[in-house]
Amino acid sequence: MSSKVRVRFAPSPTGSLHIGGARTALFNWLFARHNHGTFILRIEDTDQQRSTPESLAAILDGLKWLGIDWDEGPEVGGEYGPYNQMARIEIYRSEAKRLLTTGAVYKCFCTPDELVAMREEARGKKAAPRYDGRCRNLTPSDVADRESKRIPYVLRARVPSGTTKFDDMVRGRIAFDNSEIDDFIILRSDATPTYNFSVSVDDFTMKITHVIRGEDHISNTPKQIILLRAMGAEPPIYGHVSLIMGEDGSRLSKRHGATAVAAYDAMGYLPEAMMNYLALLGWSPKDNREIMTWQEIVRDFDIADVSKTAAIFSPDKLQWMNGQYIRALSDEQLAERVAPFLVKAGLLSESGWQSHQEWLVKLARATKERLHLLTDIVGYADYFFRAFEGYDAGGVKKQWSKPLAKKVLSDLANMLENCESFDAQTIESHCRGYLEREGLKLGDLVHPARLALTGKTISPGFFETVELLGKLKTLTRLRKAIQYIVDHEQRESR
């Protein structure tokens, strides 16, 4: 085994990159970066019926979005390629032929009907269905006779007696009684490799030193160790992390909020927040910090600190963390991040949003403390761009039924019309002077005026909202609201 750390993430391109796979990739990447090693991306695409170029592209895009780069693999190459299994078929067949000559594997000519009969006989004896090894000790003449009759065969591993043990980086010593392991198939009758064989050959030929993966792979590990030893290789050091569960304790699924990583991008999550959250799904630094930069995570990550207990995926915790990251952005950075969502909502043009950068920075500053997701910006920005159809019914009843509302809105319109400088600070100064002269509270003006300007009872800071709307829209909406109140009063008086 190489002294330099070499780890791999080996997804199957049969779907998008989901939370569990992303966490596995991240733990391998962190382990490699912490130990100044090599992170390899290997594509297990032997399932040709389900593997698609679109799925591969989605996986690569998901990793890139998270900030996970790879040192060897698709798009970057490397000296141990090719890095997709379908391009390595001849490597698997050559290794299988070598193992056949050493006796580590053997030809099995059992028909599907014979295998079914074996399983039924085992069930009748209330034993686990398994292969009974009847082809294990065929003589060379027996093999030649069957081959002459063109009987299809598979290659099976000759599982040795004894136990297979390994020291797991997460779980400690694990042992399997080899008598419980079938002589498993490594090469099918069409000469395509099985999962455990292709993975073992790849780990051997790519000089993988450590394998970090989910605990659902523990049962595969003794088979892979048996194969690697038969190849004359030292097995990697394994670490099996617990699976991710929903808050109800069941296996994580879409109903828990788990979707493809790409969907979190579309939902308005920051990749650095997602990386931070994924790192804490099963691992935590010794001082229990929660908000960490990727540099800090790389520095402090230790596979020995990964918990054996299941990690719980909490959408609320993820959203909270995302909000913390949003508030840590500068106003300029936040403006840059929210712009694509305003474009997607049709509020800004894709080609011309840069001309609104100064205004967007002000919007970012005004809304930053209220955002949990980048997409939240649309709800706080739509009324800056579009005339709204109506007013919040509860707000109308609560704010505009007061006799004072019409007067305050009228006074505000007159005051702002004569306001030469239309920035939030000047607007606030004028408004506070007016309130002091009239003996009114801030809420007496802000609540009815916010409803008039946005149609809603909640908005960013009121004075910032007025500045962002600009004088023309502000005055137009105030006068429209005054007319609405007048019309309502007239209907009520009839």
**Strand arrangement, largest sheet?**
3-4-7
Portion of residues in helices? Answer: 40-55%
Instruction: Please give the largest β-sheet.
Output: 3 strands, antiparallel
Put simply, the count of helices is: 20
Distance separating the two termini:
92 Å
> Given the helix and strand composition, which structural class is it?
mainly alpha
Mean pLDDT equals 94
Radius of gyration: 33 Å
The quaternary organization reads as single chain
The total strand number stands at: 11
- Net shape: elongated
Question: Spans with pLDDT under 50 lasting ≥5 residues?
Answer: none
Q: Give the amount of beta strand, in percent.
A: 5-15%
Task: Describe the protein.
- The chain has 494 residues and is mainly alpha-helical.
- It has 20 helices and 11 strands.
- The protein has helices at residues 19-34, 53-66, 89-102, 112-124, 140-148, 195-205, 221-230, 261-267, 271-279, 294-300, 315-328, 331-344, 357-367, 376-385, 393-399, 404-417, 424-438, 442-454, 462-469, 471-493, and strands spanning 6-9, 38-41, 105-108, 154-157, 163-168, 172-177, 185-187, 210-214, 237-241, 244-245, 311-312.
- The strands form 5 sheets. The protein has a 3-stranded antiparallel sheet.
- α16 (404-417) packs across α18 (442-454).
- The N and C termini lie far apart (92 Å).
